[in-house]
Amino acid sequence: MSHQTKPIRLHIATYNAHKCRGMDGRTRPSRIASVVHGLKADVVALQEIIGAGPGGRGQEEDIGARLNMVSVLASARILRGHLYGNALLSRFPIDRHITYDLSQHGYEPRLCQRVDLLIGKHPIHIYNVHLGTSRAERIGQAVQLIRILEDPKVHGPKIVLGDFNEWHRGPASKLLSERLDSLDLAPFLQWRRTYPGVFPVFHLDHIYYQGSVEIIKVEVPRKWLCLVASDHIPMVAEVHIWIKGESR
């Protein structure tokens, strides 16, 4: 057993940026970057991001450059000539970037973005998802997501976060909670709702995890900028990850 007893400490966030369009109707990646800067997160999973196209570089590149973070986009479809999907920002090196198709027949294309980070020599697997708005669609996506997460070739701690479009314990949430550890916000937050922006009434954004992961602290910031920059409010969590072979 190693003499090192300290865990890897990460601040991770999930944020549906709504194409960087705020509740005031203005599209401003700089404003989303300001919100993310205030989170002081090491890793940020973004949903509804417009990527590169005829108009130039993608929103994730703009935000990443402003924050000096590495950015990668996983495109689910083309929107007005631009790539469109999930993006991840990281202060750590990205070792691998993989996209899994979660699309269900007859519904909008959806995906799971997997990013393998190297922290020291340790791989940490981050899964960024945006599930569909239909109950039947989400059930199929949850089944696919479980298969992805149970891939025996992928070792090490796994953290799943994003917009699950489920504000109660629906079938997708139930299935995921049965197979993964899920973040219970009740011990951390009195106010847990993240949608819609200015007056949130639903809790759509969630975090699941697998492996030696411990949630230490969770915040849903309610500063005015966070309420208006998108139609979602970001959620940020401090997590401790205990690497196999180290003392806990």
Number of domains: 1
Report the principal-axis shape: globular
Strand order of the largest sheet: 3-4-2-1-12-11
User: How is the biggest beta sheet arranged?
Assistant: 6 strands, mixed
**CATH overall fold name:** Deoxyribonuclease I, Chain A
Rg result: 17 Å
- Specify the helix fraction band: 10-25%
Oligomer: single chain
Mean pLDDT: 86
In CATH, the architecture is: 4-Layer Sandwich
Number of strands: 12
Beta percentage is 35-45%
Fourth-tier CATH superfamily name: Endonuclease/exonuclease/phosphatase
- Head-to-tail CA distance between termini: 11 Å
SSE run: EHEHEEEEEHEHEEEHE
Stretches where pLDDT is under 50 for at least 5 consecutive residues are: 186-203
Task: Summarize this structure briefly.
42% of the residues are buried.
Annotate the secondary structure layout.
Elements: E1 8-16, H1 29-39, E2 43-50, H2 59-67, E3 70-79, E4 82-90, E5 94-101, E6 111-119, E7 122-130, H3 135-149, E8 158-163, H4 171-179, E9 181-182, E10 205-210, E11 213-219, H5 224-228, E12 235-241
Parallel strand pairs: 1-2, 7-8
Antiparallel strand pairs: 1-12, 2-4, 3-4, 5-6, 6-7, 8-10, 9-10, 11-12
Helix pairs in contact: 1-2, 3-4
Q: Any overview of this molecule?
A:
Helix 1 (29-39) packs across helix 2 and helix 3 packs parallel to helix 4. This protein starts with 7 loop residues before the first strand and ends in a 7-residue tail after the last strand. With 248 residues, the protein is of the alpha+beta class. The strands form 2 sheets. A 6-stranded mixed beta sheet has the order 3-4-2-1-12-11. The chain has a 6-stranded mixed beta sheet with strand order 5-6-7-8-10-9, with helices on one face. The chain has a single domain (8-241), classed as Deoxyribonuclease I, Chain A, CATH 3.60.10.10. It has 5 helices and 12 strands. Helix content is 20%, strand content 36%. Residues 186-203 have low confidence and may be disordered.
